[in-house]
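Below is one record:
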Amino acid sequence: MSEKGLLSLPRDVLVLLPNFLHNIEDYMNLSSTCRTSRQCMSVATPNTILRLAAAQSRVFFRPSPHFLVAATARELGNWARECDANERELCRKLQDGWDGLLELAVSQARCGLTMERIRELHLMRFSVINPVTDVLDKCVGTQWYSTPNFWNGGVDDAYTIHSDPPTAVFHLATYGELFAPDLEAVLRQDDDARKLSVDTRLEYIKYCVPDWATDMDPTWAGQQLDPRRAIKRTGPYAEGAPGVGNNNLALTWVINSSRWKPHWKEIRAKAGPDFMEEELDDGWWYNPNLYGGGNPYWRQRLWQNTMICQGLEGLGMIRPGLQDRWIPKIKEWREKIAELEKEPPVIMVGRQATLDYPYLLGDLRICVSGYVPGTY
């Protein structure tokens, strides 16, 4: 149909056109033809725009589908908090990996994006995503491996890790987008708030931060496997799926890296003193001596964990030009943590443990427990 013929249609028909377009490029092209088309396209729902964007995620929203999942994960997490049935569906789709999450966001959860938000996200690629990717590359990527005398003292954490820093940024960011609201509920001591479960968090780590170490059977000599540690042959572990590399180990290495921690220590210092004089070292595996009781570790752990688990925008805390806007919030977190009387409960899975709040390092440990003998 010619443009003139198209514009001869009633406006209440024209506004329905976005529902029948194939992708975001079609949407943009039609929007730019004339004022009438632009006005009619502007009424497209956020969910429609997300569907059109998803159709070209490999072209405009790379890494795919991580970029779009991270962009909608907070909305998806809030949808899952509405009721038990929604959370069960989220867990089921998590087992399909990133593709399952995007499918859920587009279809059942009815998440969405606006064109304004898409523009913000693309600007964020230069202000936050690319610079943070560079930091991760210095922790577990090519720049890390390129350190002179790498295996002979050039770095303090030399190891063989098959990682992809551009994807690892979204592993970290999406965890924050999904679960940061649960941290807020803990800090404001809101016992009535519905939080996503530890089981849901572990499903995210297992299938969306996949690792060959997660895929290993951690049991020995007739040990019984905790279902929360078990892996199904779906998503990244399905038969014929590409190799998964070391996504979990890479993120664990980043959190413990001497090239990562100083960025966060710098901005914490602008918001207030740490809860302890010595540097928090949670180690590579669960140490019960660092949890519970009257030691100061738990407050410091909660503060540091809260900061790194704030999603895409939150990673801007380590960007010099973006730090000032975060300092009031970091101070608020510290004040609320100081008011807490005790550490939230420890949740054991085998010999490893996480906490009854979104504790990323603990969740990561559980999901690779057993790849080092004696850790499950």
In short: Residues 47 and 112 are 4 Å apart (CA to CA). The longest strand covers residues 346-349. DSSP finds 20 helices and two strands in the chain. Residues 125-368 form one domain.
